[in-house]
Specification:
The protein is an alpha/beta fold and about 400 residues long. The protein folds into three domains: about 70 residues, Arc Repressor Mutant, subunit A (Orthogonal Bundle); about 140 residues, ATPase, nucleotide binding domain (Nucleotidyltransferase, domain 5, 2-Layer Sandwich), CATH 3.30.420; about 160 residues, ATPase, nucleotide binding domain (Nucleotidyltransferase, domain 5, 2-Layer Sandwich). The protein is about 45% helix and about 20% strand. The chain contains 13 helices and 15 strands. A five-stranded mixed beta sheet has the order 6-5-4-7-10. α10 packs across α11. The longest helix is centred in the last third of the chain and has 26 residues. The N and C termini lie far apart (about 50 Å).
């Protein structure tokens, strides 16, 4: 069956989007650099840049002197063509950030909100968003997408966060509706560990991986699964809730009479308790792991603690690997980061004894606010699609603040 050739309008849209993506990834370019990167002819590249400049998506930001001839104009993405807001909601602190179309953060807010007892958590989060937008010197109408990342899974039908029992105020029904009423912008609610995996794929340790799994080890525990660049969420959004995964075989936990699952062995206060049993003191998992790695006074107790924690983590990872067989496992979260190479190498050694499957085991490459970074990356994808698609159809920029 013969394929119909692309129409000139469709080809222009494809070329325009390809050029915009190149400018986003590679930064400012001259017309000749764009020609070399895309294979377009010089006249076609000139027409393309003219369209994008008229639409307000690119702008001339300088000149570049060549070996011969006059200086060439340098074109860049126009940052103010679109904006997104990302929010990282934790049990005690909420962080909001505003990013322009290039991904540069132009406004922030951080506020203590008790997601166990807040009488109106949606209003509290909305207030943080508004403050971040004001810090960016923007009107709220300039925001093309808001992505809120938090523990748990948002049930779209019931409009409630599931698997967030430690944040009962945040888990009350009606969250999305309340946020929408307060802000009147497009809103997505995403799992926080899935958001971290998006950031890891975009600019972390997984940029070149075909598939990977990200294990978040902190006060909470979670797994994100990336298959070919797409986050796998499962039938109900609960894929990756490995905290519930049964993990028998640890005698001390069996004697306690409590359910033995992955969360009860390697998250939060379980790590603190394990460290205390080996003479390593601290208030958080990240603190005790960091002390065991760096504090010489920890001595053999610190080594024994790291070895036992690595045993627990490797056992859970072996079960994950046996199901997913990923190319790469990324260790993220403040507990994993505090352990660094000392913990990573111990886990890897034990994993090789437990499983014939040998994925690469890497530490995270996203160190600053990874949940917020992932929320902003998700929002930017949507905003860029909105802006570029609307511009291709109408020649006018959507979502700008003018």
């Amino acid at each position: 069956m013969a394929h119909r050739p692309g129409t000139p309008r469709l080809l222009r849209q494809i070329n325009d989007r390809a050029a915009l993506d190149l400018l986003l990834r590679g930064g400012p370019m001259t017309r000749l650099q764009l020609v070399a990167a895309t294979g377009l002819s010089k006249p076609t590249a000139s027409q393309l840049l003219g369209r994008l400049e008229d639409a307000g998506l690119v702008t001339v930001t300088g000149t570049s002197a060549g070996v011969r001839g006059p200086s060439a104009q340098v074109y860049s993405i126009r940052p103010e063509a679109g904006y997104t807001v990302g929010v990282d909601v934790t049990p005690g602190v909420t962080r909001a950030g505003v990013a322009d179309l290039t991904g540069r953060i132009v406004g922030r807010d951080e506020v203590a909100i008790d997601m166990r007892r807040s009488p109106d958590p949606a209003a509290d989060v909305a207030a943080a968003v508004k403050r971040a937008v004001r810090a960016a010197r923007l009107p709220l109408r300039a925001v093309g997408q808001l992505v809120v990342a938090s523990p748990g899974v948002h049930d779209d039908v019931r409009d409630v966060i599931r698997h967030a029992e430690h944040m009962p105020a945040w888990a009350r029904p009606g969250l999305h509706a309340a946020l929408s009423a307060e802000l009147r912008v497009s809103i997505t609610i995403e799992n926080d560990v899935n958001a971290v995996a998006v950031a890891e794929r975009a600019r972390g340790a997984a940029t070149d991986a075909e598939s990977f799994a990200l294990l978040w080890v902190s006060n909470g525990l979670g797994l994100a699964i990336d298959l070919g660049g797409r986050v796998h969420r499962g039938a109900t959004g609960g894929a990756g809730e490995v905290g519930y995964m049964p993990l028998p075989g640890f005698a001390a936990e069996r004697r306690s009479g409590r359910p033995v699952n992955f969360q009860s062995l390697v998250a939060g206060q379980a790590v603190v308790a394990l460290a205390r049993a080996h003479g390593v003191r601290g208030r958080t998992g990240a603190a005790v792991v960091g002390r065991a790695v760096s504090d010489h006074e920890a001595g053999s107790g610190g080594v024994a603690f790291l070895n036992e924690l690595a045993d627990r983590l490797a056992t859970g990872i072996a079960m994950i690997v046996s199901v997913l067989d990923p190319e790469l496992i990324v260790l993220s979260g403040d507990t994993a980061e505090s352990g660094g190479e000392a913990l990573r190498s111990r886990i890897e050694q034990r994993l090789r004894r437990l499983s014939p499957l040998r994925p690469r085991l890497a530490l995270t490459g996203v160190h600053d606010d990874p949940v917020l970074a992932g929320a902003l990356e998700l929002g930017l994808r949507t905003v860029r699609d909105q802006v570029f698609t609307t511009t291709s159809r109408s020649g006018a920029v959507a979502g700008t603040a003018r």
